[in-house]
Design brief:
Helix content is 72%, strand content 0%. The chain is built from eight helices and no strands.
Length: 220
């Protein structure tokens, strides 16, 4: 499950530095960021038609922040029922904290959305709430679910399908021009550093939580 790792501080520092630099350059309106975004938007929207628009709208709908919360609640319910009680509470806290962080940085950076996007989203653009929620859901699956699957091929299938889903969500948000590519990258970096923090929290709190009535006889 989640254990101590000597590389976790290094990964956390890298995530913080990358997210801080990206956020700074976006807020300051750096030309390099605009050129980078323009290039990736051109690639993502090179073939815009009704079929792809429908597919990416469905993906975007399934990965909306509200539905990401619903998916994590359902996943936590299943985890709790199979006696992964601490993990269930951890996954809920991970998503709740992610939603709060996304809200805070949206208003700190206050980046306007692309003009003329094909989705109906409102509010600030950076970081992408769809990507942030999906990253947290995917991270929960990879950290909690995948290690408990005995069949190696099935475990790898679940892992890579989850990663591909995250990539599709990122592409969908750019294709629909609801976000700039750096909005989705920033969401992944923010989600990454938040997961690293929450893994520390798990290691610190799990031995205590197992004595709580709510977590009685939970797996660690």
């Amino acid at each position: 499950m989640i254990d101590k790792s000597r590389y976790r501080p290094v990964k956390f520092v890298i995530a913080v530095i990358l997210f801080a630099y990206l956020s700074y350059f976006i807020q300051s309106g750096a030309v390099g960021v605009d050129l980078f975004d323009a290039g990736l938007i051109s690639l993502a929207t090179i073939k815009v038609n009704g079929f792809f628009t429908l597919i990416f709208k469905v993906i975007s709908w399934l990965a909306s922040p509200g539905r990401d919360i619903l998916w994590i609640v359902l996943l936590a319910f299943l985890l709790y029922g199979f006696k992964y009680k601490i993990q269930a509470l951890w996954s809920l806290a991970l998503m709740a904290g992610g939603v709060v962080l996304d809200f805070i940085f949206k208003h700190l950076v206050a980046r306007a959305r692309p003009i003329g996007h094909l989705a109906t989203d409102t509010g600030y653009s950076y970081p992408s709430g769809h990507t942030m929620g999906t990253f947290i859901l995917v991270a929960t699956i990879i950290i909690i679910i995948v290690p408990e699957i005995d069949n190696y091929r099935l475990a790898q299938t679940v892992k890579w399908v989850s990663i591909i889903w995250l990539i599709l969500v990122m592409v969908a948000r750019v294709y629909l021009q609801a976000h700039y590519p750096t909005d989705t990258i920033g969401a992944v970096l923010l989600g990454w550093l938040w997961v690293e923090i929450m893994e520390w929290v798990y290691i610190w709190c799990a031995p205590t939580l197992i004595n709580w009535r709510l977590c009685y006889r939970s797996y660690l």
